[in-house]
Amino acid sequence: MSCSKCSKGMNTRGLDTRSYNSTAGYHSTLKSEGGCNCESTTRVSKWTALPLYSKIELPGDLDVIAGSNEEGKAWRLPVTRLLAGGEFNKLQYSIDKKASKIELNPDQVTPAFIPGPNSSVEEAVADTEANKAQFLVIGNDANTKNNVIIQSSGFLVFPRTHTYQVGKTYYLHQTEKGGLTSVKPTSGIVQPLFTVVDELTININIGV
After folding, report:
1. Main-chain phi, psi angles of 94, to 5 degrees
2. 3-state helix, strand and coil shares in percent for the chain, rounded to the nearest 5
3. What is the pLDDT of residues 78-104, one digit of tens each?
4. Residues 137/149, Cβ–Cβ less than 8 Å
5. 41: β partners
6. Residue 64's beta-bridge partner residues?
7. Closest Cα partner for 124 from 26, 53, 191?
8. Which stretches of 54-172 are assigned E, i.e. beta strand?
9. pTM: predicted TM-score of the whole model, two decimal places
10. pLDDT digit string, tens, across residues 146-190
């Protein structure tokens, strides 16, 4: 579609959202794309006028429109950046273990916690509420000396077959620091850590 003011160019470039009115919908500015510096205003329907997405799986190229009132602009934002594991919603983090002597075993995870500000990472144990796990240490950071990689939710896929029993839920051990048990305790502190999905995958869901 050509510019409504000068009939040049195509109004398909650069959505620049200016304001929203609950009755009229969104007022947007579209800049033309070829030899034209004019701006024309279009009115976009309210979000509630759009059909609901009802399929089970999301399309690989699904985008959303994200806007900033402060900048007066809107952008196309890939949903994959917002989903778990995306760059805005990471599952794994690298942290400095400081003076910690935490031991990591290949193809296993270690429940751990940080007791306070500037404290070292410590192996968790379900003997008191203060010593419960906050996350699982899944390995050393190969890029940063003295850092470990941690994860507190979501799926973890091991590079090789792990040592856990498929279908079992593992709990924080009540007496062994950094220990796990697949037998649910009948008393004391019961903190589930993850469920084993298959020979390579666990689903981390640390109980509070």
Report:
1. -105, 125
2. 5, 35, 60
3. 776 666 556 665 688 889 998 888 878
4. yes
5. 29
6. 77
7. 191
8. 63-68, 73-78, 92-96, 110-113, 122-123, 135-140, 147-151, 153-157, 169-172
9. 0.60
10. 999 999 998 888 889 999 999 999 999 999 999 999 999 999 999
Whose tokens are 């089970």? That residue is 56
Give the other-Cβ count within 10 Å of 30's Cβ: 20
Compute φ and ψ for 131, nearest 5 degrees.
-100, 10
Answer yes or no: is pLDDT of 20 > 90. no
In contact, 108 and 92? CB cutoff 8 Å: no
Measured at the CA of 16, the angle between CA 28 and CA 33, to 5 degrees, comes to 100
Q: How far apart are CA 98 and CA 75, in angstroms?
A: 40
Q: Which helix (H) or strand (E) holds 21?
A: strand 13-21
pLDDT at residue 13, rounded to an integer:
42
**Which residues lie closer than 8 Å to 91 by C-beta, 6 or more apart?**
84, 85, 151, 153, 154
Determine contact, residues 149/93, Cβ cutoff 8 Å: yes
CB within 8 Å of 46: residues ≥ 6 apart = 22, 25, 26
Counted residue by residue, the chain has a size of 208
What residues pair up with 157 in beta bridges, in sequence order? 201
Query: In terms of C-beta density within 10 A (0-12 exposed, 13-18 middle, 19 or more buried), how is residue 157 classed?
Result: exposed
pLDDT at 122: 95
